Structure formats: structure tokens, C-alpha cells
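Reply to dn_fold:

You asked what the input looked like. This is it:
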Amino acid sequence: MAHYAYLNENNIVVGVIVGRNEGEDGIDWEQYYGAKRTSYNTFAGKHLSGGTPFRKNYAGIGYSYDLARDAFIPPKPDGEYVLNEETCQWEIK
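and this is what came back:
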């Protein structure tokens, strides 16, 4: 079971669905769904079960997708935070 994030024209996540695993049935499911795959078990660039991390973070509604980093980034919290380039998480300055 895989999850896919739908993006708006500004690359902001507007929905997440459960779908088929990539390569299952020989179909490119990202293309089929018109959405980016995201991993429920990925946080801060690490896979929580020891597997391969996928796009730095599980996508949530309101997250942005950064094409250059191929990463989902949570919304910036209020206050003085900087983006950790490795984890794509916000950290206090």
C-alpha cells in the first residue's frame, strides 16, 4: 500500500490518498494518479522502520513539495525558524 499526495499549482499538498505500490501491475502509479508518492514511514529523511526514506517527510495537507530537493516540507511555524536542508524540517534559529 502506498500513499500519494495531490498538489495544487503552487506545489502545496491539498490531499493524500492510499493507492497502489509503484511498479505494481507494471503501471507508473504516480503518473496514473497524477500525484506524488509519499511514504507514511518517512520523517526527517529517515525511514521509521529502517527501510529506504522517501521524499524526506510524509506529506500532509499544507506541506509544500520542493522539486529541487525532491522533498515534502511542512509549513513553517510562526517565529524564527530555519529549514534544515538535510532533514527538510524546521528548526529554531
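The first strand starts at residue 2 and ends at 7.
Hope that clears it up.
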